[in-house]
């Protein structure tokens, strides 16, 4: 607190956003990881996989792996979401300041949406390898153990493999335009006359932001989940998916258009508590660091 107070206003704002973003990542993981596990498993299995639907996936996971099976792969996102959200909120602050240079007027929602789209590609550099490890661990089913943990997964996947899904991740994260735009629009409508917003309304705005985000990018999320979780290949072997276009073609050939929305229900169930918690934690830490 003392160290932050000695910084210039601009630098202090950036540091506060990085710290608050880190806290929001922890809150997001705790609130939403079980739903994320179900989402990833349904996405990667497709319509003809081992699960008949959301409820079957949930009951099978708990029956075979216990309740903690829903938190499988939680360690990477617990750390990773702290890093990702720290970069996301920090980069968003910097990019907004470059887009809207007039500090005497409030930034417009279109400007916020543009900043969000640019931030999406920046954050993808950090998000892609972290979420690749998370996804690979999430689809280790009962009785099948390819990786002994995050470090072993990183070692076996390799740097190139960790960035195999970078392009679809970039397109997916571009929807931060809807995320931050949706949040700002909601906050401006829900804010009290004195300019403050309650915890409950901040939670609601965060849930709306998350819904806007996922409704505008989910097909790309399915594609990147498939690419991230495809089996590791040895030199000379042909991967299951050669890239984003090849993956999209194969999903459509087997599952049709509905294949690009597999896992959408648990995603929507997750988005309100996870993103509501994200923005509540973020706003609370920002206030504490003022």
From TrEMBL:
One of its GO terms (molecular function) is L-ornithine transmembrane transporter activity. The keyword Repeat applies. Pfam families: Mito_carr. The keyword NAD does not apply. It is a multi-pass membrane protein. It comes from the Eukaryota. It is found in: Mitochondrion membrane. SUPFAM superfamilies: Mitochondrial carrier. PROSITE patterns: SOLCAR (PS50920). Keywords: Membrane, Mitochondrion, Repeat, Transmembrane, Transmembrane helix, Transport. One of its GO terms (biological process) is mitochondrial L-ornithine transmembrane transport. Solcar repeats lie at residues 12-98, 107-190, 197-288. One of its GO terms (cellular component) is mitochondrial membrane. Belongs to the mitochondrial carrier (TC 2.A.29) family. This is Mitochondrial substrate carrier family protein. It comes from Tieghemostelium lacteum.
């Amino acid at each position: 607190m003392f160290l932050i107070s000695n910084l210039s206003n601009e630098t202090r704002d950036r540091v506060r956003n990085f710290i608050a973003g880190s806290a929001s990542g922890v809150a997001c993981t705790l609130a939403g990881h079980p739903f994320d596990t179900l989402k990833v498993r349904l996405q990667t299995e497709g319509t003809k996989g081992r699960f008949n639907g959301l409820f079957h996936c949930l009951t099978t996971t708990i029956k075979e792996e216990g309740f903690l099976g829903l938190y499988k792969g939680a360690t990477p996102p617990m750390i990773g979401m702290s890093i990702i959200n720290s970069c996301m909120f920090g980069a968003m602050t910097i990019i907004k300041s470059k887009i809207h240079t007039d500090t005497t007027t409030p930034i417009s929602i279109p400007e916020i949406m543009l900043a969000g789209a640019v931030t999406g590609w920046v954050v993808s550099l950090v998000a892609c390898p972290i979420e690749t490890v998370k996804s690979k661990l999430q689809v280790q089913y009962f009785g099948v153990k390819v990786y002994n943990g995050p470090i072993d997964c990183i070692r076996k996947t390799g740097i190139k493999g960790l960035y195999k899904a970078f392009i679809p991740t970039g397109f997916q994260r571009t929807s931060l335009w809807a995320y931050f735009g949706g949040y700002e629009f909601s906050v401006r409508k829900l804010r009290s006359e004195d300019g403050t917003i309650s915890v409950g309304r901040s939670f609601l705005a965060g849930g709306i932001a998350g819904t806007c985000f996922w409704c505008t990018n989910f097909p790309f999320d399915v594609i990147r989940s498939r690419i991230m979780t495809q089996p590791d290949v040895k030199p000379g072997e042909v991967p299951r998916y050669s890239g984003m276009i090849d993956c999209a073609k194969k999903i459509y050939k087997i599952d049709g258009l509905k294949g690009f929305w597999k896992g959408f229900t648990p995603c929507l169930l997750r988005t309100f508590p996870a993103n509501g918690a994200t923005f509540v934690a973020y706003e609370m830490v920002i206030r504490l660091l003022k």
